[in-house]
Design brief:
Length: 215
């Protein structure tokens, strides 16, 4: 997996692109091949990233519209704007009895009460000792990052909008030498996956995942 991302940009959204698998290659006759310069390679790469970005934005646009409505309904904003304006003009109250919020919160509470524990098992010649070490390291990283709460927020996002994301990264802010593993819930609106992916596991069929960064 290759990652391409840009640094801080004064509060503007930044783009992070994660490419899965090998990039497609184009075979041309020998007489037409030529050695690309560094500048030409960078221009070609930028063009490909822009194509992926446009493709992801267009492919996920319908989900974004639905998700915004889902979050509005969860928060109690369930009236159509035109109907709400008409009621306001007539000085009539717009009563909202929100059955969605307690139902989703009930599911979220069930997830919090039944969290899964982390356990690494030895496979393909691995030893139980190494598996126990990895189990301890995984739990330590979860504890330092409040990973259980981040996962619960991810679950809540999935219950409301249909998608939830967890970001696993390495932060060098406190430990510039070794770094610290961080586990954070990412907003579903900041992630744009390949709309042409055919499998639930994006590692199998997605060419990329785009993540917006805010600097």
């Amino acid at each position: 997996m290759k990652g391409v991302q840009r640094s801080s940009n004064d509060g503007k959204p930044l783009l992070g692109l994660f490419l899965f698998g090998k990039m497609p290659t184009i075979t041309v006759p020998k007489e037409e091949t030529k050695k690309e310069t560094k500048e030409e390679s960078e221009v070609a790469l930028v063009g490909k990233l822009q194509k992926f970005w446009r493709e992801a934005e267009e492919g996920n646009a319908s989900w974004v519209d639905r998700a915004i409505k889902n979050y509005d309904f969860y928060c109690g904003k369930q009236w159509d704007p035109k109907t709400l304006a008409a009621l306001k003009k007539e000085r009539r109250p717009a009563l909202t009895i929100n059955h969605i919020l307690p139902t989703v919160n009930l599911l979220s509470g069930m997830e919090r009460e039944n969290r899964n524990d982390i356990k690494v098992y030895p496979m393909k010649g691995g030893t139980a000792i190494h598996a126990d070490v990895f189990t301890g390291l995984s739990k330590h990283s979860m504890d330092k990052s409040n990973g259980e709460f981040e996962q619960s927020m991810q679950f809540l996002d999935g219950g409301i909008g249909g998608k939830g994301w967890i970001g696993l990264d390495i932060s060098y802010e406190k430990d510039p030498i070794n770094g610290d593993i961080t586990i954070e819930r990412d907003s579903s609106f900041d992630i744009k996956e390949d709309p042409n992916a055919k499998t639930y596991d994006l590692n199998k069929s997605a060419k990329y995942i785009i993540r917006y960064y805010w600097g």
